[in-house]
């Protein structure tokens, strides 16, 4: 029986309305994230309290407008210019001490010499900031320096016990005053003996003039053996457990990486030693060109770090990618722009084709084929590839954009998950592509016994996905410091990196599905709730409680946005 004309019109209107609501919420999340990032970088300098200024300029009575030097002029009652001041934030926020940047007021006198340095605020570790403030020599030693001296960091020694914080302050001041970026954390020049670990035949090294972090490596007859790239200062702000690390990247004459050495680190022992001794990890990048390294997505490349020293090793991995990327930028070498398809991606694509073929044809009625496919889905897509659509992933892409080049298979999977239910009456992802759904289907009617779920309780539990969606909006738009992967079970499939929360959700959901068929899908899954909201179905022409829930979520996004 075909639907009547008015009901078809209603169906089209309501279905379009649902798509628009979903797209609008994503757009609001994206706009808000963009604004937040822009605000953070363009934020004008926070106001300085008058008391602070008067303690530096006792005769000050008023402030002028912005000066040529990029600061604010300070004047006395006779209109005489006493000097000017500036703050290191936000430009200097890129210099992170132990755990965050410090905003410093730099006050100059009328002769362009520093009168005083004051710490205005800091996101660094309180104890280290206090040590810097209480140190009798560090901040006062800037007084009397000219701009050039401050940029060169002459006559200023770091505070013992708060080295990273004081280095970050020095670097932020130097950078704010117009200096270029140098590494104070790893200031020692490269020694031949260090390079010989990467190039045993090396007899000389020469710093490349326009790229100070890159060195030529020469043999006995001054023939070129390759180059070494230091990750400092590019990676100086990447903190592992406790501090940054510096890595040397060996690059052969074929422009391919030949090895890595962890040169120095402020991170904790024994993690640093674990990384130094893990030749498998250090050789994982061999064979890549620097342009490829700069474009590497560590997650997509499944670089998981050194077991037992994950944070240290991942900060090393992120550091080498960052250093290669900065080098590429400075030399205008663009990392590869095309989408690369790995075996992993092709495997997932094959599963998508297989899932759609079975789901859209009469093959889905062949029980043995269905069983074999579900087992393959669990083993291959779930346990081996770990490719799954999740709310955390959608929220991340909505905020920061879609990683077009590096997430080929996930993109295809997500597109299938969203477009198929919108355009057909099938939620092919939940029925034929989600490994977590497949496990529940395998458990259904096979183990345990069915429990009768009272209607009231069932109704109540059905609101759980909606509440999780509300929580998701609060986390991404407020924003709150919470990892969204913890509200879903999908990260538990990558058990080497899974946290306890996601493992807990997976175990509870699967245990419940032993007694209530598809319990997690029906009562717990916010991703499934979105897909089924978007699915065209026999009741699409009717306004439902889900539509009210969607309107509420949209209003919440508008309020938070
Ligand atoms: S409802 Fe969630 S867990 Fe269930 S199949 Fe769909 S996405 Fe997977």
Provide an overview of this structure.
- Helix content is 46%, strand content 12%.
- The chain is α+β, with helices and mostly antiparallel strands and 561 residues long.
- The chain has 3 domains: 50-176, no CATH class; 192-330, no CATH class; 343-560, no CATH class.
- The strands form 2 sheets. A 5-stranded antiparallel β-sheet has the order 1-2-3-4-5. Strands 6-7-8-9-10 form a 5-stranded antiparallel β-sheet.
- Helix 1 (5-42) crosses helix 13, helix 1 (5-42) runs parallel beside helix 22 and helix 11 runs parallel beside helix 14 (408-423).
- The radius of gyration is 29 Å and the shape is globular.
- It starts with a helix and ends with a helix.
- The protein binds iron/sulfur cluster.
- Iron/sulfur cluster binds at residues 430, 434, 436-437, 520-521, 525, 527-528.
Keywords:
single chain; 561 residues; alpha+beta; 3 domains; 5-stranded antiparallel beta sheet; 46% helix
| Gap between N and C termini | 44 Å
Q: What is the residue-averaged pLDDT?
A: 84
Secondary structural class: alpha+beta
Taken from the alpha-carbon principal axes, the silhouette is globular
| Tally of separate domains | 3
Strand content: 5-15%
Computed CA radius of gyration, to the nearest angstrom? 29 Å
Strand order of the largest sheet: 1-2-3-4-5
Q: Which consecutive residue ranges, at least 5 long each, have pLDDT under 50?
A: 331-338
- Cofactors, ions and other ligands in the entry: iron/sulfur cluster
Helical proportion, percent range: 40-55%
Number of strands: 10
């Amino acid at each position: 029986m075909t639907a009547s004309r008015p009901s078809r019109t209603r169906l089209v209107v309501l279905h379009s309305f649902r798509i628009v609501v979903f797209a609008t919420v994503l757009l609001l999340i994206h706009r808000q994230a963009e604004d937040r990032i822009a605000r953070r970088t363009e934020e004008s300098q926070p106001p300085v309290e008058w008391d602070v200024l008067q303690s530096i300029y006792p005769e000050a009575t008023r402030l002028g407008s912005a000066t040529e030097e990029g600061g604010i002029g300070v004047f006395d009652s006779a209109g005489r210019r006493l000097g000017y001041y500036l703050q290191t934030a936000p430009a200097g926020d890129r210099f992170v001490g132990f755990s965050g940047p410090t905003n410093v007021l730099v006050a100059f006198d009328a002769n362009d010499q520093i009168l005083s340095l004051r710490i205005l605020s800091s996101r660094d570790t309180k104890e280290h900031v206090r040590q810097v403030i209480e140190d009798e020599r560090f901040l006062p030693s800037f007084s009397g320096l000219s701009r050039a001296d401050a940029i060169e960091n002459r006559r200023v020694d770091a505070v013992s016990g708060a080295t990273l914080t004081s280095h970050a302050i020095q670097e932020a001041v130097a950078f704010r005053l117009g200096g270029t970026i140098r590494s104070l954390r790893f200031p020692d020049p490269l020694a031949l003996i260090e390079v010989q670990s990467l190039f045993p035949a090396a007899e000389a090294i020469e710093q490349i003039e326009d790229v100070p972090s890159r060195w030529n490596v020469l043999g006995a007859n001054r023939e070129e053996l390759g180059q070494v790239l230091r990750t400092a200062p590019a990676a100086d702000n990447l903190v592992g457990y406790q501090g940054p690390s510096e890595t040397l990247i060996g690059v052969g004459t074929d422009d391919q990486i030949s090895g890595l050495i962890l040169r120095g680190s402020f991170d904790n022992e024994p993690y640093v030693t674990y990384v130094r001794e893990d030749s498998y990890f250090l050789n994982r990048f061999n064979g890549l060109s620097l342009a490829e390294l700069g474009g590497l997505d560590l997650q997509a490349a499944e670089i998981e770090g050194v077991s037992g020293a994950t944070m240290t090793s991942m900060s090393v991995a992120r550091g080498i990618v960052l250093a290669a990327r900065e080098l590429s930028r400075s030399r205008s070498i663009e990392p590869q722009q095309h989408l690369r398809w790995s075996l992993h991606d092709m495997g997932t694509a094959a599963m998508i084709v297989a899932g759609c073929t079975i789901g859209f044809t009469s093959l889905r009625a062949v029980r043995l084929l269905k069983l074999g496919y579900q087992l393959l889905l669990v083993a291959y897509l779930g346990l081996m590839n770990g490719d799954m659509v999740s709310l955390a992933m959608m929220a991340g892409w909505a905020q920061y954009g879609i990683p077009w080049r590096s997430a080929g298979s996930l993109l295809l999977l997500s597109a299938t998950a969203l477009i198929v239910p919108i355009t057909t009456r099938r939620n092919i992802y939940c029925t034929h592509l989600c490994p977590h759904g497949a496990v529940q289907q395998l458990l259904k009617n096979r183990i345990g016994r069915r429990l009768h779920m009272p209607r009231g309780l069932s109704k109540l539990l059905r609101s759980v996905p909606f509440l999780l969606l509300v929580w998701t909006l609060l986390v991404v738009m407020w924003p709150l410091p919470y990892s969204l992967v913890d509200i879903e079970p999908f990260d538990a499939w990558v058990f080497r990196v899974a946290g306890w929360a996601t493992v807990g959700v997976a175990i509870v959901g699967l245990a419940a599905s032993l007694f209530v068929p598809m319990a997690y899908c029906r009562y717990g899954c916010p991703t499934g709730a979105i897909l089924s909201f978007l699915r065209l179905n026999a009741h699409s022409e009717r306004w439902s409680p889900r539509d009210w829930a969607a309107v509420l979520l949209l209003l919440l996004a508008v309020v938070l946005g």
